[in-house]
Amino acid sequence: MRPKQLHIRNIEEYQELLQALEFDGKHIENLTKETIEKIDHMLDDDNDLFNQTNLSVIQTLARESVVNVPTLVDNKINNDNNPIDKSHLVIKSNEQLEILIERVKYEIFLFMENAEKIRTLIDLNVMYKNNIDYEIQYLWKNELVQMQGQISSNQMDILIYYKDRSEIGINILKQPRISDYWEQLIEIDEDFFFKLRIILYNLRLYNLQLYHIVYCWIYFSNKII
């Protein structure tokens, strides 16, 4: 069944808002192109972010995540002769992986924000006045919703990584002599490195789709798409 067409009453009252949203749409066109180029660069083998060399660094840091830290007394390390001086194990985060996570989280935020702005344009029926068929807009909106859902799932992957790594860390602290726990820490960091690459590939594809929607809206609004 054909979805009902949206109608905005007293469109003059919304003119300032509509102009601002249309400006956002044209800005997003340029922003998505820049984002695609940036993600391509991040995934390039010559770049030091997501290549094999950086994976080796992440593996090394994972092996060094479990460290001995001296006990502090009054914010000072106890002397060796002090009988109460003890060391305890601490699980450090993988610093190199944290850098990659922050980069990916920023790209996730940027995409979600831009996709939401375009959805707002569709909801307010701004595109329809450019003679674009409503059914096409409806399909675009569904496409945006699906992409946002997948990216939200990727955000959960980041939270799950921290949760799983914490649980492995707890096992190491409880039973540090079991080397399999230490190996699990290395494996989970390696695995998440590749998951971050997949998330970036998804973001690249979704930005291409977002660019296509905005490009068609701006340049082919009076033609059959």
UniProtKB/TrEMBL annotation:
Family listed: Belongs to the PA28 family.
Annotated SUPFAM superfamilies: Proteasome activator
Database matches in InterPro entries: PA28_C, PA28_C_sf, Proteasome_activ_PA28, Proteasome_activ_sf
Lineage of the organism: Eukaryota, Metazoa, Spiralia, Gnathifera, Rotifera
GO-annotated biological processes: regulation of G1/S transition of mitotic cell cycle; regulation of proteasomal protein catabolic process
Annotated protein name in UniProt: Proteasome activator PA28 C-terminal domain-containing protein
A Pfam family matched in the record: PA28_C
One GO MF term: endopeptidase activator activity
The UniProt record lists the keyword Nuclease: no
Organism: Rotaria sordida
Proteasome activator PA28 C-terminal domain residues: 91-214
GO CC term, one of those recorded: proteasome activator complex
Top-level taxon in the UniProt lineage: Eukaryota
UniProt keyword list: Proteasome
